[in-house]
Request: fold
Amino acid sequence: MAHTRIRNFNTKDTYPEQNLDNDLCQAVVTRGGKTVYLRGQCPQNLDDAKNIDSHDPVEQTHKVMQNIRQLIEEAGGTMEHLVKVVVYITDVRYREAVYRTMGEYLKNVHPVSTGLVVQGLARPEWLVEIDGTAVIPE
Reply:
């Protein structure tokens, strides 16, 4: 692993009443390298800013996480360099679906994570937005 992860855990243990399986941690320690701050990613294409044609939180989260992976790779890194995500959802009922989907991309990564339920995002059709920070070792 590229960074030191302190107090790794999985959400299936933290939230046993929910159907989640996310590898997270309480803190990430990095040393050196370059820091990549990602803009909040939404369910749209990076090349043309067109929204995907879906109002499903799972499909929107897949697109968001694919964008995050693509941007980290374009910066010269991999998903294991992701150290923090902030998840914004417009309805608490989307939480399990969004986190379950996000967890597919974060297996064995263990970033720190903050989740917020917000009144709305920049476009009314967006249900989820995720921003992130990665540190790519030298």
Notes: Residues 4-136 form a domain with the 60s Ribosomal Protein L30; Chain: A; fold (CATH 3.30.1330.40). The two ends are 14 Å apart (CA to CA). The beta strands are 4-6, 9-10, 23-24, 27-29, 34-41, 82-89, 112-117, 128-136.
